[in-house]
């Protein structure tokens, strides 16, 4: 508009003012809607930096959920986001939810119930007779972890094979990472469910997966027992739903699906390993990540010093917990940020959880 414009000082007609105000209100609503659905630009930059770190380290996916909304997704190195991904040992986390449901439903008397009440074969063994449900889930049962004995297809019924493995120590004495503990728990739960004519997988679906709209599969052995130590498959979006259930204390869309006090036991540090609860890794440090990346919990000699060390100074990841699987499958739960983060990958020695979390949370 030029200085000579004769309409320059002419007041705007009232209808135009109303239309302009309406347009401004509509534009403001659109802006507010878009920012409430997605992460803020500064958050997006952090998530992109973390995703790029994942990509460089043979990553397949990074997904971030804030509250109940997915605010970031990145699928990498040719991975199809619709393809269910191996969770590996990330599958273990389902067992804590299963145990919590079984305690709530009265099938298990509590975390410290002796497993021999159900596993009669153990009642005559002075050490196996003292193994509790807690010992099985925090990997301190004393059972030989039995990687070699329980790998592959040569063992038809891995649950029963796990019951027969030797003891290497007293229950609660030492953290020993391996599948035998979880196969034994699977057999305990199978026997408790048998009178109800329900399988372990059907129970998981009915009590945990279906109520949150989650789709997942777990490979089974020749006898039909699900591979609870490491046979799970899910997409990033589906696994994030389970993380949300854990983060929100068993509550889902206003319904309490699992008791919050029972789920809190999943993230209580065990006596044998302060970095591990019941199926979940706690407060991840750089040293813990290096140990996991090097497979030290899998291949450590019995007489080697423990790799589980507390950080010398403050741990910025205190309060964060994760389900972790081989080749760096991760389900991070970050309660103080109201976040659930999924990371899928294909291995590689460059990965470190502390480095990833520093980028994700803007500490670098």
Describe, in plain words, how this protein is organized in 3D.
The chain has helices at residues 14-37, 41-56, 93-104, 133-137, 147-150, 158-163, 180-193, 200-209, 236-247, 260-264, 286-293, 296-299, 353-360, and strands spanning 59-66, 69-75, 85-88, 217-218, 232-234, 251-252, 255-256, 281-282, 321-325, 329-334, 339-345. By secondary structure, the protein is an alpha+beta fold. The chain has one domain (42-360): 3-Layer(aba) Sandwich (Beta-lactamase). The strands form three sheets. A six-stranded antiparallel β-sheet has the order 2-1-11-10-9-8, with helices on both faces. Helix 2 (41-56) runs antiparallel to helix 13 (353-360) and helix 3 (93-104) packs across helix 8. Mean pLDDT is 87; it is low at 1-37.
């Amino acid at each position: 508009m030029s200085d000579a414009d004769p309409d320059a000082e002419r007041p705007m007609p009232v209808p135009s003012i109303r239309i302009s105000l309406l347009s401004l209100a509509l534009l403001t609503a659109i802006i507010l809607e878009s920012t409430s659905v997605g992460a803020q630009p500064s958050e997006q930059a952090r998530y992109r930096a973390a995703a790029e770190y994942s990509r460089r380290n043979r990553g397949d996916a990074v997904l971030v959920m804030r509250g109940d909304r997915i605010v970031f997704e990145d699928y990498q190195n040719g991975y199809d986001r619709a393809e269910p991904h191996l969770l590996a040992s990330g599958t273990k986390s389902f067992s804590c939810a299963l145990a919590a449901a079984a305690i709530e439903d009265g099938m298990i008397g509590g975390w410290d119930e002796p497993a021999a009440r159900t596993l009669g074969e153990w009642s005559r063994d002075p050490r196996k007779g003292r193994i509790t449900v807690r010992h099985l889930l925090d990997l301190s049962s004393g059972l030989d972890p039995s990687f070699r004995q329980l790998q592959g297809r040569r063992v038809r019924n891995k649950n029963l094979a796990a019951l027969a493995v030797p003891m290497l120590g007293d229950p609660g004495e030492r953290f020993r990472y391996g599948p035998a503990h979880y196969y034994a728990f699977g057999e305990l739960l199978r026997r408790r469910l048998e009178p109800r004519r329900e399988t372990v997988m059907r129970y998981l679906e009915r009590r945990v997966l279906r109520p949150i709209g989650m789709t997942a599969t777990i490979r089974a052995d020749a006898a039909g027992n699900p591979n609870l130590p490491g046979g799970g498959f899910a997409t990033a979006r589906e696994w994030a739903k389970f993380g949300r259930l854990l983060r929100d204390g068993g509550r889902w869309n206003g319904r309490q699906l699992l008791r919050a006090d029972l789920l809190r036991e999943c993230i209580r540090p065990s006596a044998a390993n302060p970095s591990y609860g019941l199926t979940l890794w706690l407060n991840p440090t750089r040293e813990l990540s290096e140990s996991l990346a090097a497979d030290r919990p899998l291949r450590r000699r019995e007489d080697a010093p423990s790799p589980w060390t507390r950080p010398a100074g403050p741990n910025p990841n205190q309060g964060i917990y994760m389900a972790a699987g081989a080749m760096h499958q991760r389900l991070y739960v970050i309660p103080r940020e109201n976040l659930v983060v999924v990371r899928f990958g294909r291995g590689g020695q460059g990965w470190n959880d502390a480095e990833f979390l520093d980028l994700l949370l803007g500490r670098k």
